[in-house]
Amino acid sequence: MNESSPIRTETAREIPVESPPARTTRRRSRIGRWLLVLLLLMGAGAIGHRWYDASKTQVAGEPGAAKGRGAGRGGRHGGGGEPAQAVGIASVVAGDIPVVLQGLGTVTPLATVTIRSQISGYLTEIGYREGQMVKKGDFLAQIDPRPYEALLAQYQGQLARDQALLQNSKLDLARFQRLVQQDSISKQNVDTQGALVKQNEGTVAADQALVDQQKLNVAYTRITSPVDGRVGLRQVDLGNYITAASTSIVVVTQLHPISVLFTLPEDDVSRVMRQVRAGAKLVVRAYDRGDANEIGTGVLDTVDNQIDTTTGTVKLRAIFQNDDEALFPNQFVNAKLTVDTVRNAPVVPTAAILRGTPGTYVYLMDGDEKVAVRPIKVGETDGTRTAVTEGLKVGDRVVTDGTDRLRDGAGVRITGGPAAPPESPTGDRAADEKASGDKASGDKASGDKSGADRAAAGETPPRERRQGRRERQPAP
User: Fold this and answer.
1) pLDDT value at residue 104
2) Strand ranges inside 385-454, DSSP E
3) Highest CATH level, class, for 118-246
4) pTM to 2 decimals?
5) CATH of segment(s) 344-414
6) Sheet of 222-224, strands arranged across
7) What is the rounded average pLDDT of the residues 289-306?
């Protein structure tokens, strides 16, 4: 440095500068330490996990052994080491299966009458309550009759006058007829008088018709029920002016007997008509919308005379007495028509019938511990029971519950059904099992004794006995 420089070398301070390679080495050493700590933590966690599993297995050693023994028994019953499947069974019995045809139906009254007045006038009286049961001829309503009564009196007076004229003309005709016999009057006068009599007779007949019409109008002012049934809600109130044949007063619906209109496919028409032509009384049962509860029982009344081409169905009408009024007009029902009955057929529960690769089949009990696949052919069914036409005989036992995991030759364990329960163990085996159970219970009870009880009885604790045996053993 130049001597004339203002910076003096003896007073200048040297600043140490770290080299880049030293800084990189320090960072790498820090990362290595963290990795080593992480590996140590992972190792400690693995050791602790193994120790926890070992202690858990040791504590649960006895239940595990019992589970192993139970699995061994399941392997003996099921074969191949698999546990026996718990199933419910039922026996094939001989029974009668009704042939039932089902269709959708509607409750239809035999008579539904809308009450309207046949004359015009003011409604002066109502003689029913809404929802009341009425008989044929019961009083329902009254129209003001005074205008019609007055007109009736007028026509009756006119009739009396014309009847007097007719009587007078008849007397004159009789006189003329006597005079003509004496040649005192001409024949023309007699004929004229006879025509006048006939004219008066026509007038009297017309007057009588007017009188009868007014009497009928007066009768129409009193409205009565035309059928037996139930009165609906009132459609017009008291004091309103009623127009003839246009104003509805109330609706009366016949409830008993009542009918059900239902439909069946055209393929079933021949079976129904065969029974109808034979004179059979076919039973029809009506069920509710959910097809769970029976509402009523009736008989088939008639079959429609043609098939509906748009739906391919035919209408049928069944009559129900409906004394309890369970069937309500326009109610939707499921109608079931019994057309025939299959007698003494092998019957199985419908739950036992399966469908798959073999077709329609069941699991048949082969002894008491195995099942076999048996293909069958089914016939008529009533929902819960099915008739079998081929493949089973009366007395066979079939599986009804627990068929999901079964296969041909699988081992089973019967848990329910009408079949006899599995055979109980023999006397020796039962005694052995009871003795082993009592021994296990005694060991457990003795193991549960406290240290104080052992000390009071003068017993040596198991740990001290084991330690004494180890001390007495000679050194190797």
Assistant:
1) 94
2) 385-390, 397-401, 412-416
3) mainly beta
4) 0.57
5) 2.40.420.20
6) 222-224, 139-143, 121-126, 241-242
7) 93
